[in-house]
Amino acid sequence: MNFLIYFLLVLFIVKGIFWIALTPIFQAPDEPNHFAHTQFLAETGKLAVGKQDLILSKEVAKSAALLNLDLKGQHPIWRPDFSTTFSGKNESEIKKISIDERKNFFAWIGGGRHPPFYYLINGIFYRIFAFGSLIDRVFFLRIFSVLLGAATVCLTYLLAKELISEKHFFAVTAAIIVAFHPTFSVVSSTVSPDILAIFLTSAFT
What we know:
Layout: H1 3-22, H2 31-44, E1 56-57, H3 58-66, H4 91-95, E2 105-107, H5 117-128, H6 134-163, H7 168-179, H8 182-187, H9 194-203
Antiparallel strand pairs: 1-2
Helix pairs in contact: 1-6, 1-7, 2-5, 6-7, 6-9
């Protein structure tokens, strides 16, 4: 591939890491729901199939409370209080939550009306970094999304090059447009099955 594409992929990954670092956990669309489904699968080895499955862990619920987040809905007032230091407000309290609380499931949480393939793959990534705090695990799962996003940018370039073989400039331009699309930037840096759907659609186009 052209040097510009390699440079673009590196730039995309760096952008994604910055986006991950600047976005508080659970402040992306449905992120607490998708994390809860992933955690339930990784910790129990079972897929949630309905409301009879209590998949919300005490760890997620306590973290949401510390973040001033209502898991039952979204509202502008439900947002974390930002600190003036490098560490977020209540971050130390979240990291102190007992490891046993991640296995203590007590309630249903929505967001599971998606094919289970994403949660299966995400669950593997979760287990690799299970040693970390909740904040660490959310960030590592977000990095998985960034990698899927980078792969999608690469596929965009290859697809555009195949369609317009004599116009390399257009293939690079198409990849740049995807890499810096605002919505794609958000989806590819959060815990969300949408990025896997985008990647698979691009791969089988």
